[in-house]
Amino acid sequence: METLNVSVWRGNADGAFQTYDVPRHASQTVLDVVTHIQRVLDPTLAYRFACRVGMCGSCAMTINGVARWTCRTHIDKAVRNGNQIEIGPLRNLPVIRDLVTDMREFFDKWAKAKGQFEGGRTRRDDFARVAPDSTDRKMVDAGIECIGCGVCYSSCDVVAWNPDYLGPAALNRAWTLIKDERDIKSIERLRAVAGDAGCHSCHTHMSCTEHCPKQLSPTAGIAGLKRAISLAVLRGTL
Amino acid sequence: MSFRAQTLLWLAQRASAAVLGVCVLVHLATMIYAVRGGLTAAEILSRTQGSAAWLAFYSLFVLAIVVHVPIGLRAVLGEWLAWRSPSRDWVLVLISSAIGFMGMRAVLGVYS
């Protein structure tokens, strides 16, 4: 049987790669490989997953140097030199153990970017009617399907260089709320995402857009934030 | 530094980049034109001395550099050297002032 030569990160930040031979199958995902190692070869391996179908955003890892969702990454697309694959934890996040990272910082930054929806209606008001073909709603649609996997955050060089930078996912979330006509906290949110720790630090490398497994473009949202904040500052409304 | 100031710096860098784009093109085109028959100091001075247009053009060039360079350097120092304290901004003001002084000295040198 054909085997895969798999290097897996073991330990915390001071760990090292350990090699395993894993049987290769048709239609095998990277998550299948990690699961095989944990269930058959080494039960001490720590990793994180839940839905296995690309919805929950919990199984992202670094595959051959590139952040990917492992449940939807086919081995055939991930291997190099025919049968070699290197699996490590996500970059830019503290490693707890093996393939598990501490995601607190990632989600705390969503909160810092005021990523919570805040509407102005009560239960006694009628439903808000948002036209699906309105410009703002289309912009929201373009960014709303984020599953919070952390691939963009892990791929972003600015996050690596500036620990305060909110990151592509949090900024994308802020953008979808600013374009949500029901939300009433736009001004506070624009203030939260402006400046050195916010959208103005983005260098438009587009690594987030390149690697987002949902094919979203946080870069476009960040560009929208830059425009909105610049106009608001020049008009004196921020 | 407030987020408003940081936003204005970002805008100033984009605006100065737009000016620099035009200035560099004019500068390069002039160089290519000027060296066709060989390059001499006398030829350069004959074009620039007493010319208000070249004085204005190169003064604008220097001004755009004075605005653009420190803002870009600010990001480089923050990201590569993790230098984000207020001292970074004061040092950049000094660097910017030095660039402005040397630049205008050169511009006035070929004008007068």
Q: What can be said about this structure in brief?
A:
The complex is a heterodimer of chains A (238) and B (112). Chain A contains ten helices and seven strands. Chain A has 238 residues and is of the alpha+beta class.
What gap, in angstroms, lies between the N and C termini of chain B? 40 Å
Shape of chain A: elongated
Strand content range of chain A: 5-15%
Instruction: Name the structural class of chain A.
Output: alpha+beta
What's the CATH topology label of chain B?
3 helical TM bundles of succinate and fumarate reductases
- Mean pLDDT of chain A, as a whole number? 96
> Approximately how much helix is present in the residues of chain A?
25-40%
Largest sheet of chain A: 5 strands, mixed
Domains of chain B (count): 1
Which H/E pattern describes the elements of chain A? Answer: EEHEEHEEEHHHHHHHH
What can you see in these coordinates?
The complex is a heterodimer of chains A (238) and B (112). The model of chain A has no long low-confidence stretch (mean pLDDT 96). In chain A, helix 4 packs antiparallel against helix 7 (168-178). In chain A, strands 2-1-5-3-4 form a 5-stranded mixed beta sheet. Chain A is an alpha+beta fold and 238 residues long. Chain A has helices spanning 30-41, 75-78, 104-112, 135-143, 151-155, 157-161, 168-178, 186-192, 207-211, 218-235; strands at residues 3-10, 16-23, 60-63, 66-69, 84-88, 95-97, 100-101. Chain B has a single domain (3-111), classed as 3 helical TM bundles of succinate and fumarate reductases (Up-down Bundle). The radius of gyration of chain B is 17 Å and the shape is elongated. The interface between A and B is medium-sized, with 16 and 14 residues.
Name a few traits of the molecule.
heterodimer; A: 238 residues; alpha+beta; five-stranded mixed β-sheet; two-stranded antiparallel sheet; 7 strands; B: 112 residues; mainly alpha; 3 helical TM bundles of succinate and fumarate reductases
